[in-house]
């Protein structure tokens, strides 16, 4: 948990309902200055609602949010000056060129004559050649870059990226992450939501997982991975999953072709193989994989699911 | 006032100016066609308050075009940015709801004045138009544009789809402007419809505006100014309350 001096974003007991849907059910988070923070969760978990509350696009029913110490409601001008948001949808204003779009966006933040910084952002996002082209004529990936550029025109210390790489090709994704990583190294606080868990694992220092409007896990990426450490053994049996000995069935998660076992350590491997051998089970293929953020994610979602069921 | 307002106003002006052929040129042509057809048919038959019909018609067409385009400007800008999602670009910056309101309304007003000026410039050669009291002309076109720009904001904020906006425009704005004395003096109407017309605020805009040209009107211009100002304040207050509450813009 960051100390009070260096809090970039503070979210306290935020609740939001849309009709009967409880989108946020008392979310509290603190994000430190300079952190690369991940916000993960399945669709409908409340990630975008939380970001919208932070950006002032949605008004929470209860709770408070602040950006660099400025309340997003009572001190919204100062809070918004310190926040850049890259929205999830690929939106653009069809009347303007890339440069006009960025000049206008600068003006909204009270910044005139911003061309030096605009040129720098354009160069960093590989958009210089497109500066005078109308937004309508850009490809989806290019439009996505302009959205990032728009979020940066006012040099916000906190940058929120809501699914910035959805539908973006690999090359652009890599380029974008290099740039965002550099921003983070320069001291920007980055908040990222993504469906690509390998991205979150590679980039984020700390992660919050949301489910049904609640934080169900909040820890450093390293600790989260350690929590679900160990390996997964994937076996393809000669006789198919049905040939698995009864003694092992309880531990296995079976799919159509393979049986998977979670191993806390490699010491568990030998007894497991011995049981198979004793039962005369032939093995066609064997693979050992390290736990990754996807396993952690699924594990956390399952745990919280059963906890929520138990609480009912 | 922060320059967020200035930029939003500039953006709103640039938006319609970039397609001025459609947003200024087209309504000017439409008004010219109205004038040519109506004045050709009615010129030899009708005089209103001692003014030849074509001359009487011109201020009506000018203000009608101005009002309809002021409405179109704010309403279409808002619905377009809502439907495409680009409204987020004006909701994320530190722009207050009052600045937001002023930028859209002033832009709508200016488009109204521009279209009205264009209509006047092309139609005034067809009939002897006079300018008895120019300050009334400017006052009524500005206030009328303000009322319609504000109503356009309400419609643009309320409507979720283009057909809802078209409904607002076709079933409220069009009848209000057409049935307000653009083409006739209300004294030529049966008493009942004269009475109905007096509940239409657009009638006072047009009557006061026409007074600026000919120095004659159906009601005294001071009364028209009072009604029009009160209407503007009322719709502005309603729109500001909507914006303040975040209705349909900040969920």
From TrEMBL, chain B:
ABC transmembrane type-2 domain mapped to chain residues: 18-246
Alphabetized GO MF terms: ABC-type transporter activity; hydrolase activity
Pfam families xref list: ABC2_membrane
PANTHER family: INNER MEMBRANE TRANSPORT PERMEASE YADH-RELATED (PTHR43332), TRANSPORT PERMEASE PROTEIN (PTHR43332:SF1)
GO terms for cellular component: ATP-binding cassette (ABC) transporter complex
Subcellular location: Cell inner membrane; Membrane
Presence of the UniProt keyword Membrane in the record: yes
Assigned keywords, A-Z: Cell membrane, Hydrolase, Membrane, Transmembrane, Transmembrane helix, Transport
Principal location: membrane
Transmembrane spans: 20-38, 50-71, 83-106, 113-131, 137-159, 171-189, 223-243
Topological type in the membrane: Multi-pass membrane protein
Species assigned in the record: Candidatus Accumulibacter meliphilus
InterPro entries listed in its UniProt record: ABC-2_transport_permease, ABC2_TM, ABC2_TM_bact-type, ABC_2_transport
Family: Belongs to the ABC-2 integral membrane protein family.
Protein's name in the database: Transport permease protein
């Amino acid at each position: 948990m960051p100390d009070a001096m260096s809090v970039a974003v503070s979210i306290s007991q935020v609740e939001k309902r849309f009709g009967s849907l409880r989108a946020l059910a008392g979310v509290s988070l603190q994000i430190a200055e300079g952190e690369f923070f991940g916000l993960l969760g399945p669709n409908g978990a409340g990630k975008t609602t939380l970001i919208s509350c932070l950006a002032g696009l949605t008004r929470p029913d209860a709770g408070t949010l602040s950006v660099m110490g400025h309340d997003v409601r009572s001190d919204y001008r100062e809070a918004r000056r310190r926040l850049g948001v890259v929205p999830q949808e690929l939106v653009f204003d069809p009347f303007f060129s890339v440069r006009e779009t960025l000049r206008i966006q600068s003006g909204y933040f009270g910044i005139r004559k911003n061309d030096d910084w605009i040129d720098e952002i354009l160069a960093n996002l590989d958009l210089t050649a497109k500066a005078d082209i109308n937004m309508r004529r850009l490809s989806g990936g290019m439009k996505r870059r302009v959205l990032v550029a728009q979020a940066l025109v006012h040099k916000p210390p906190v940058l929120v990226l809501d699914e910035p790489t959805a539908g973006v090709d690999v090359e652009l994704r890599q380029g974008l992450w290099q740039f965002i990583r550099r921003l983070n190294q320069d001291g920007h606080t980055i908040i990222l939501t993504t469906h690509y868990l390998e991205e979150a694992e590679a980039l984020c220092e700390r992660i919050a997982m949301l489910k049904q409007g609640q934080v169900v896990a909040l820890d450093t990426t390293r600790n989260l991975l350690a929590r679900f450490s160990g390996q997964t053994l994937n076996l393809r049996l000669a006789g198919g999953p049905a040939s698995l000995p009864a003694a092992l069935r309880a531990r296995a998660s079976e799919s159509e072709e393979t049986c998977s076992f979670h191993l806390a350590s490699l010491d568990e491997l030998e007894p497991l193989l011995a049981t198979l051998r004793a039962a005369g089970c032939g093995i066609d293929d064997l693979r050992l994989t390290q736990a990754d953020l996807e396993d952690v994610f699924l594990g956390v979602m399952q745990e919280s699911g059963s906890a929520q069921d138990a609480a009912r | 006032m922060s320059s967020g307002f200035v930029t939003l106003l500039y953006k709103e002006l640039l938006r319609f100016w970039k397609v001025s052929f459609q947003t200024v040129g087209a309504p000017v042509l439409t008004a010219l066609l109205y004038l040519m057809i109506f004045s050709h048919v009615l010129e030899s038959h009708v005089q209103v308050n001692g003014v030849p019909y074509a001359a009487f018609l011109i201020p009506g067409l000018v203000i009608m075009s101005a009002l309809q385009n002021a409405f179109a400007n704010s309403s279409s800008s808002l619905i377009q940015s809502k439907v495409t999602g680009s409204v987020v670009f004006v909701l994320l910056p530190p722009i207050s709801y009052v600045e937001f309101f002023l930028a859209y309304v002033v832009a709508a007003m200016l488009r109204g004045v521009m279209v009205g000026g264009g209509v006047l410039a092309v139609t005034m050669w067809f009939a002897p138009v006079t300018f008895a009291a120019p300050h009334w002309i400017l006052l009524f076109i500005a206030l009328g544009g303000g009322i319609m720009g504000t109503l356009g904001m309400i419609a643009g904020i309320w409507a979720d789809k283009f057909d809802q906006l078209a409904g607002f425009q076709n079933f409220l704005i069009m009848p209000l402007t057409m049935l307000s004395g653009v083409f006739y003096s209300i004294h030529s109407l049966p008493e009942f419809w004269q009475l109905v017309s007096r509940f239409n605020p657009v009638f006072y805009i047009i009557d006061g505006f026409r007074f600026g040209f000919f120095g004659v009107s159906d009601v005294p211009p001071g009364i028209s100014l009072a009604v029009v100002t009160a209407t503007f304040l009322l719709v502005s207050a309603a729109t500001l309350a909507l914006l303040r509450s975040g209705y349909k813009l900040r969920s």
